[in-house]
Amino acid sequence: MDLEKKHCSCGSNESACAEHSERTPRVPRTSDEKHKIINRLRRVEGQVRGVEKMIEDDRYCVDVLIQLSAIQAALRKIGYSVLERHTKSCVAKAIEEGHGDEQINELLNVLKHFQ
Fold first, then answer.
1. Helices in 6-60 by DSSP H: which ranges?
2. What is the number of helices (H) and of strands (E) in the chain?
3. Which residues form a coiled coil (predicted)?
4. N or C: which end of the chain has fewer CB within 10 A?
5. Domain-by-domain residue ranges, the chain?
């Protein structure tokens, strides 16, 4: 019998990971924070549609690559923004409440995906 726990890409065991889609931040996002993130994501969505059109129009490869690089940079910026907010609010609150180790380990695991 295999007693080793299976882990998902986030570093938690599978049973905990199934709950990820149901979890909410320890400190809820403000309306302004949500608005800013959604606007940035919509801009990226527009960029992706633009690249799709470039492919359909058989545009020059280097032009497509430049736009793809811009999309990656925009998504990275959004990710770092969410990461900063999570660290300063959710992780900080968990530390204050005495269970920061779990949050810090989760944060370290997710940071591996930002390489």
1. 14-17, 31-56
2. 5, 0
3. none
4. N
5. 32-114
